[in-house]
Automatic annotation (TrEMBL), chain A:
Protein known as: YetF C-terminal domain-containing protein
Signal sequence annotation: none
Keywords: Cell membrane, Membrane, Transmembrane, Transmembrane helix
Organism: Methylobacterium variabile
Membrane-topology annotation of the record: Multi-pass membrane protein
Keyword hit for Membrane: yes
Origin superkingdom: Bacteria
TrEMBL record, chain B:
Keywords from the named record: Membrane, Transmembrane, Transmembrane helix
TM annotation in the entry: 24-45
This protein's name: Uncharacterized protein
Organism name: Methylobacterium variabile
Amino acid sequence: MRTVLTAALMYAIVLILLRVTTRRIMRSATPLDMAVVFLFGGVAVQPILGTDRSITGALLAACTVAGMHLAVSRLKLWWPVVGQVAEGTPVVIYSNGTWDWQQMHRLRIDERDVVAEMRQNGIRSFAEVQSAIIEHTGGITIVPKDK
Amino acid sequence: MLSGSDDSATDIRTYPGFERRWNVFQTVVQVLIGLTIAAGLAGLFGDGPLARAERAVPGTPLVLRYDRFLRAGYPSQMRVTIARPLDDEHVALDLSADFLEHVSVSATQPRAESVDATPAGVTYRFRLGSERRGDITLMLAPREYGATTARVSALGRTVELPLLIYP
């Protein structure tokens, strides 16, 4: 019974904390948001199945993770460099027929990733592409040429 | 904030009233998160400066150091310091039964010479050696949450230690 009640309580706590911590978390895969998801998962499971079965300890740890996320999210509004460090910046890897191979090697992205993204956007050839950008979320944005 | 009438072009239903109330709730929760972290750092949930307590057993050279805030399932310690040499090489510590209903003693350091159950609780007897002083550490494993009082008796004196055990 304890496991069921603890799991239900931790579900409610994590739900509320996720809801008040960030709205973007399920759409965005920035390190800032992923850190919250990973840590919440670990923290919430501990009192349900782990050896430290203290709910107060888990609540305290979850609040600390949420507090850190809120603090860093606010700091990045005041000092953009915080956001650049915590989340990264967009990088242009293809522009007007030219690949930036150095950036692609650094980001471990190859041409096939870009082509796959092009296909998903209904673009069939590079003749239709103005630029390709690796976003700070990890996604690839294809900007089509003006027609 | 945009209202539902501002976005007629995209035909989307918004809930500005709910969003306003949610923003208030969100601010309250964020403040509570900040207070919880501050309380945690201070030791209000155990393991911090506010949690640490020290109590001398009156009329004896025994001093107890313990955490007044414990968490069920999270181990803690109670340290008994014998500051001056005792008359005897042996010392007995009595722990009350109601305290032991909430907290188990998982081990002692040094190992107790004998552990005896009594109607009032459990008596741990330690051999101090020729110096007749030293430190005794009781490893505690809190089990049941709630407020309790640890009655610790030694050398014929009793001291009461109020404790709060969080779930």
